[in-house]
Structure formats: structure tokens, C-alpha cells
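Sample intake — Caspase-8
Collected from: Mytilus edulis
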Amino acid sequence: MANLRLRQILVEICSDLGSDDLEKLKFLLRDVTGSAKLEMATMAIDIFSAIERNKHVALHDGSYLAECFSLIGRIDLVRKLELDPRRVEVGMETDPRLFPFRILLYKISEDLSDKEFEQLKYHSTSINVLKDMLKALHRGDLLELVVEYQAKYPHLIDGENNTDSININGATQTLESPVVDQYPSLPSRPQNGGPQTTEPSPMHVYEMNAFPRGFCIIINNNNFYPQSGFGCRVGSDEDARMLDETFCRLGFIVKIYNDFTVKDMAAVMHGLSRLDHSKYNAVVVCILSHGGEHVVYGVDGKEIAIRYLTSFFRSSKCKSLANKPKLFFIQACQGNERQTGINQTDLSIQADGPSDLEEGQSFPETDAEDVGRSNNSKIIPDESDFLIGYATVTGYTSFRSRTRGSFYIRKLTENLNQYANSQDLISILTRVNHDVSTENIPAGNNYEISKQVPMPQFTLRKQLFFRPENLPHDRTMPQSAAGLSIISQSIQAVRTIAQPTDATKCKTNNIDYINNSNLVKLTGCTKIIGNINVVEATFEGDPYLNIPALHPYQLDVFKSVKEITGVLVVQGKHKDFKDLSFLGNLTTIYGRGAKRYQGASLSVAYSSIEALNLSSLKRIRNGNVVIAFNDRLCYANTVKFTNLFRRKEQLATVVKNRSKLECDLTRKRCSTVCGTNGCWGPRRENCVGNITENNSIEDSFNIVDML
């Protein structure tokens, strides 16, 4: 990995590491960077800088850190380093970069109780003394780790008094004193030597003392569009009611949103992430909908990745929620498999997913690389302090009663109501798992019984106690209209995009390319004074400028655009970036300044699009057209661009896109309705039509094709 790329990744990782993670890194890297430098480090960037100054470490790029991240359980960060977690784990077994004795001490210390830790920490430099102490503590399980270490590294064993010297790439490092004694806070332990109590240390418990505690947003998708292919989720309103009552009782400001499309859902997350949460302790999001593997569906039948919805609350995007718990509860299927048994049929039970569809009916597939199919850990967001409570395990359905609501939400709210005063959230969710898994759910035909097991996933770093007993007796919520109005504005911005005012003009003269930082300024525009540039950085974001990645659906803000005075340039790739339908109402490209773009006023190159879908485009007044090197693009070679040009010298170059043979084999060709005029994409609404001198379109339909 190039040093520049590694530095970019490390900058991103800095915001992912909590204080506990930093202390663990200091412990594991002491032999690499030296204790003095680490003691001065207060931020992740300090540790990374110290590592970079070690020329021996630099030879291995991110491998030292990858081993550290693997040991402390941050597999997500190993992936951020663009390394395979399994290979890193195998590498630690065969040829570790880290000091083997330090790895041993870390593994042992992670499994010690506080009392055992205090007894052992002063005797960790001698292998034989370490063995004797573990025997005295009756920790035969940990003693096996020491025996394995001795067998694997006999060259490191030096008689009775071992100081464990090891040669790291030619540089001799010596463990001179007890490691865990040097870092008593790693692993985290109480600072006094007194007896343990059941009450956790305040350092290891999230604060939960504000009133209100924070916002709880419930998205209740019950009534799906007929064309979506999904049935209505009868009983979902009961889930929403139970969640409303429970989280109100726990001190949250609860707002229910009913029947949202995927754009509405994303808009709610965007609006919620824009709020100032500094006075609150947490945020809760509950999504009740149909779902698939790591996705949920809007009432329009479109899917959206759960990972995308949670991404709005990463520390870099929502700083006021940094180090605070972000809780997501998802009542939806994660597949269409069922765990079955035998019982009488109960037709009042429904599944919340694609299994609701008629037999043989297809449902949208998801990209494993994006949503982490077959790899559950990718679904947990990279940053810490998240919890995602899934109603069922990956690949399986979840169930809902028409009258009593879903089994998961009912057991979740029952256990929160009963145990929130005394138990932490993970313990409560364990009870929920037990209660749901013991249910015999009569669902389906032939006397089948279905089973369901919820699946919580989390990167919480502390225990979470809701502590409702500490709430004021008068639980009248303070005025929260300001916060909720911001969310409403975000939703309204999405819903009014298709209804712009004719006079709206927006300037893009000072915008290099479309990204998440400038997109909101262009909402509702009908005329763009300047250019629209959609490039690779649009979808990748810019960590240095703190600009998050943009999802293609967000480009729908341009659906109101009818004219572009400058040029249109598209060069970006994204798995969901398949056409230019976000400019479906664009009628005219003026092409001013096309000379600065090698004479092209419409340029689409090296993109992932499959169709242009510029169905309203009538005129390109200046400049040329270049449509090239789009390996998935069909239809473009059918368009007679000369009919759109105003001048004879204007040229159209359409080359190196998907071959006509491949397009024909995959049936990506114009509808016969389009006749000889060509098309911008599939279906008859993308027919180019006959363009006359007065810019009117005379569509020529084949009556046979319409029947």
C-alpha cells in the first residue's frame, strides 16, 4: 500500500477509535514505538506518527496496526486498511509483526478478573513466574496459552529469569519491566485494590442523566404501494404503539413517521443527524418494514442499505453524538428462509420480508460488497458506540401477528419495561433473544411451526443503563419542536423536488464538482447557471475536507432542472449509479465554456451507467457530445444527436461503450415503439421522438407494440 494512501486511511481511522482503544494500542505497540512516546500520545494520530517514525515498521505498511486492531476486536478497521482479516489472523499465528510475548500478555489480561489482574500484574516478565501465578489462580485455560507460547517460541525462553528479547527486523527490543504494570489502565481496571462490586465503574458506563435522554424516531411502514410487490404490514401499528410507550417511559422524545419511501427514510436520518445532540445522551431509531439481507424497503418497494442509514451518525458526520450510544432496532426480515417445526396453522402470522411475495415473484438483489452479505461484521458501522438490534439472523424471516404486533418488538418492549431499572441493554437483549427463540410461531401451511432468533450487533464500548428511576417525576417533555422541524424540513426538501418553481436559478460557477457539501444549495433549481460535474469524488467523498460520500439517489435534487447554461460532465462510478434519470426533465444544454472541456458540452465517460435516460433533452446549442468508455452503457448509439445540435460543426462521438451484441443478448435495446428515432433507455417513455424546428416532439408509436 502506498504511503500516501495509508496516511489517508489512518486519518479516517482516527475518529473511529475511542479512549479504550487508544490505551490498548499503547499497550500493544510499546515495543515498536517506545513507552516515552506513547505516554505523551493523547490522540490516535500521535500513535500513528510515532509508528511512522520507526523505519522498520514502515516497511510493513499497515500490518502492525492490523494485528493490533485484530487483537482488540476492531475487525472493521482491519478492513479499512484494505487487508483481509483472516490473513492478518493467520499471519499473527505464523509470523507476527508484534512482539509475541506482548500478544500473550494481552490475551491473558483480557481474560482475567479484576482481582486476578491485581495479583498477576507485578509478575508478568518471567515466563516461569507467570506460569506459577496462573497455576495458583487455578487458571488452567490461560496456562495453556503460556505452554503454547513456549512451544512456539523456544528461542525466546532464557532459563529461569526471562526478559524476552526479540529481534524485530534487525532492531533488538527488550521487555525490561512488567508491561501491564506500566499501563495499569490497560486493560481497563478499577484504580483501587478494594473488593469488587456489582456496580460498574462510571468510566465504563454511558452517561444517561439528561432529560430528555434524546430523540427516538420510529419509521412505521405499513401501507406499501400496490406496484411495490409487498403486502400491507397489518399489525405494525401495534409495534409502533408499544415502542412509543416504552421509549417515552425511558425519557426519550418520540416521533413516529408512517409509510415512508426510501428517500423519505434517508431524509429523516439526514435531518436527525443535523440536530445538536450535545444536551442529550443517546439517539434511538426504530424501523418497522419489509426487509432483505441487510436492507429495508420503503413503501415504494425500493431497498436501502441499513449501513447507509446508520452512516449519517458516524462521528465525522454527527459530532454531537460522538462517544454516545446510537441504537437501531430493525423489525424486518433478513432473508426468506424459515426455521420450521410442526403445529397447527395460524394465518394471522405474516413474515416481514420477500417471503410475503407470491411464489416465483422476484425481489431486488443487493450488492454484497456494499451491504456486507455473508459478512455480518461489515454491517456494523466503522465507528464505535453503535448497536443494531435485528429481529432475526441473517438470511431468515421475522414474524408479525396481525393483532399483537411482531414477536421481536413485543418481547423487546416487555423486557425494557421490566428490566430497564436494573439491567444493562446487552443483558436485556439477551433476555429478548431467549424469549423470542422459545416462541413456537404458527406460520405457513401443513401444520408448520416457525422459529425466530433475534441478532443484536454492536460496537458499544461501555455498558448502557437507561436508568428510568432517575427521571424527574414530572415527565412533561420540554419543547422539542425546533429539533423535529429540522427533520421535517429535510423530508419536505425531498418531497418538493418534483414540484419546483419555474423561476428558480442556481449558480454553480464556484463549484468544481457535485458533492455532499454543495448539493443542498441546488435543491429545487430549474436552471443551472454554470456546469454540473458528477465525478468519482462525488461518490467517494473527501476525508481531508470532511466531505462524506454521496449516494446516487441524492442526485434526484436535479430532477427539477430544465436548463444548464454550461456543460454536463459525468465520469463517476457507483454500484447504484445506473442512469441519468435525475436529469429526466432537462431540455436544453447551452454549452457555454465547452472549450475548457475539450469542446464537449455533454460528456459521459468511464461511468457505471447503463442508460442515459435523458428523455426530455431537445437541444444542445453549443459544443460536442462525447459518450465513451462506459462498459455498461447501451442505447446511446441509437440516438441521432445531430437532431439536437444547433450548428453543423457540432459533432457526436459515441465509442467504446458496451457492444451492440452484448446489449442485444441482454435485451437492452429500444422498444419498437421508438421506431427509427432511437432511445435514451428502456421502455417507450425513453423514445427520442421526432424533433422539429420548433422543438416540439412528434412521437411515433407502433400500435402493435402498445397492445
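Post-analysis note: The two ends are 58 Å apart (CA to CA).
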